[in-house]
Amino acid sequence: MQKFEFIQGVQNSACHRFIWVNGPVIVGAGPSGLGTAACLREYGVPFVVLERADCLASLWQNRTYDRLKLHLPKRFCEFPNFPFPDDYPEYPTRRQFIDYIESYADHFDIHPNFRECVHSAHYDATLGLWRVRTTAATDSAAARSGPQVEYICRWLVVATGENAACVVPEIEGLRDFQGQVLHAADYKSGEKFSGKRVLVVGCGNSGMEVSLDLSNHNAHPSIVIRSSVHVLPREILGKSTFELAIFLMKWLPLWLVDKLLLILAWLVLGNLEKLGIKRPSMGPLELKNMKGKTPVLDIGALGKIRSGSIKVVPAGIKHFVGSNQVEFVNGSQLEFDSVILATGYKSNVPSWLQESEFFNKNGYPKSPFPNGWKGSRGLYAVGFTKRGLSGASSDAVRIAADIGSLWKQETKQQQKKTVSSYVSCHGRCISQQF
After folding, report:
1. pTM beyond 0.85
2. What is the sign, positive or negative, of the torsion defined by CA atoms of 33, 36, 39, 41?
């Protein structure tokens, strides 16, 4: 397959390289960035992909636990123009999904510039272009202060997504805790926690699955469920709950679909308040649309909670006491050997993008889905929809079509100028001969 990354570079006296990109710069080589690159490839648009890690989809490769599987059926998680292999199960494993990502990049001939960390990007109004400055992504301070590369481009695609940085809560006394403390991003397996008392902070899908994995490895997990949360069965009558919701929404209003899902969940899972899990007043789909909060899809954690293998702490943490105790807001105190923070992720866009019209202060597009993919002056965002892989794919298709259309128009105009210039020059040559 023909390569399209045509760039031109010059060197200045300050040891900075300046590279003109004849197309968009895509920041991030995860599913969002790769999907956009593949769609641009279909339009014949050149691009450069910048990635701070040394691999594709670093979140999936380096920051996920071993037992992870896709929460939704594979057909809802496909990248644009590339179905999953037929022999993959309905819910592919982490390793299968990584293989799928690597096959996707190979198929569309996508070769990111790895270990390039973007530390600033701004729009140069004088040039009418974006200037994206990078340094080598390394732990060495000397390397970080070394030569920089500045990419100059007309279009900038922000594909770092919603999960670029870990959210670590400030909890009084946590630094004095003598046991192991880690974020769920660094959790791999419950094997080394066997026999230990582990406090899991956070009750989303990650918190529930980490607790389940800990229990399966003979640890003694307790999960903090401070606020209300929707827990739904992953499947109802052998069908994906997500697929069922999509089907019902074709015929029924959202509020009624929410009612039906909650009734079905109660029939399958029972009364969760008896387990210390309270449901929000807003329905699961409405809550997802309004606040981006994803319901937990149960794959076995509730059964462990019922049996007592996973303890529920229905109160927030007040503070850590001494070397291994935690006091909760209800006054109870418990001892733990380890703490796992399943407290989620956030955007890192504010740390490097100098722009305030399109993105808010938290690093998310100000316009909600489905209008949060396009800003002004050639700025785009992909993977910020709070709708997972399907939302990222939708963004990628829109962005590539928009840039592809502009690219086609400009290519035609350039061809016309070239032909006109040739005819004019050729005509002058003929008149000079005669």
Report:
1. yes
2. negative
